[in-house]
Structure formats: structure tokens, C-alpha cells
Amino acid sequence: MKTALDNFETLYLRLTIFLAALVAVSIGLIAILIPLNLFIIKAGIGSIWWLNESIEFTLFFGVFAGAPWVLQQGAHVKVDIVTSSLSPDASRRLDGFINLFGFALCLLLCVYGSRAGIGEFIDMTLPDKDVRIPNWIVVIFFAVSMALLAIEFLLRFRERRVLKPAGDAHGSEAGL
Predict the structure, then answer these.
(1) CA proximity to 67, closest of 139, 6, 123, 141
(2) How far apart are CA 146 and CA 105, in angstroms?
(3) What is the DSSP string of 27-66?
(4) Above 90 in pLDDT, residue 106?
(5) What residue segments make up the domains of the chain, in order of their start?
């Protein structure tokens, strides 16, 4: 029988997979558009004038949108040498402490980002670029991604996860 927390986690997993898929599509588009732009320039047709700044925004959004999925998969950079040298109980406690610290840090960054985003919205500031996405959208996206990361750190405390993260075992092959 599925609990409300199981249903929440399932929805959360679907959201993170959707965001990861968007990041993958955006990377694919970047890989196609850069050579296309070079071809257009070399052919003397013109250029895709907005491409460089769009890639900057895409990379920013992609890093933060993909971070919860990467943490879920255990594919983040992780130092297993410390946890593999500890006893299983000590390793579990250290992992719990790291998850608690990660939750607190992400929650703090979420609050900070939300406050900064509200300030940017009130001021209606725009970047000094050709592609002018209001600053509040960028900052609020950061805050939302920190909230998603905080949720993932909390979900890592569940013993009966809907999806077991790949990085839970010692010497995980996932990540770098």
C-alpha cells in the first residue's frame, strides 16, 4: 500500500526526471546550434546573434535543474575512500550527517535565493545583455532548485525509498 509520502516521492521523481530530460535536450540543442552558427558565419549568411548568451543561461539553468536528479542517482562527485574505511554503522551515521548538513545548506540557500528574487522582482532589474531574461526569474530558479535539493536530502533518510539511489553502496560506480 502506497503512503502519501510514497506518492509525493513518486511525483518528485517524475519532476526530477523531466528536468533531467530537459537538460539533456538543451545540451543536444547546444551541440547542434554551435556548428550551425559557425556554418552560417563562414557561409557569410549572418549569425545566430543570441546563441552565446542563450547558452550561458541554458548552462546556468541546466546545472541547477539537473542537480537533484544527479544527487538522486548518486552520480555526484563523492569521496568513497572515507566511507569505505569506516564501519558500516559509522559510515551510515556520517552519511546521515552529510545529508542533514546538505539539507540545512540547501534550505539556507533557498531562503537567501527567495529573498534575493523578491528584491530583484521589486526592482525589476534586467541583465546588461542582448538576451534579457529578468534577474528575478534566474534567482528564483536558483531558489527552487535549492528547495528540490533540500527535498532530495530529506528523502535520503527514508529507508523505504520509491527509488533507491545508485550511490548508496560503498564503492559506487556512479559519478566521477
Answers:
(1) 141
(2) 9
(3) HHHHHHHHHHHHHHHHTTS---TTHHHHHHHHHHHHHHHH
(4) yes
(5) 4-168
Residue 173: all three cell numbers together:
560506480
Q: Sorting pLDDT into bands at 50, 70 and 90, what band is 169?
A: very low
Asked whether 147 and 110 are in contact (CB, 8 A), the reply is yes
- Is residue 81 packed enough to be buried (19+ CB in 10 Å), middle (13-18) or exposed (0-12)? exposed
Angle between helices 135-155 and 4-42 (to 10 degrees): 140
Q: With bands split at pLDDT 50, 70 and 90, how would you rate the model's confidence at 176? A: very low
Question: What does the alpha-carbon distance between residue 151 and residue 149 come to, in Å, rounded to a whole number?
Answer: 5
pLDDT of 138 higher than 80: yes
Residues 36, 117: contact at Cβ < 8 Å? no
Q: What gap in Å lies between CA 151 and CA 145, rounded to an integer?
A: 10
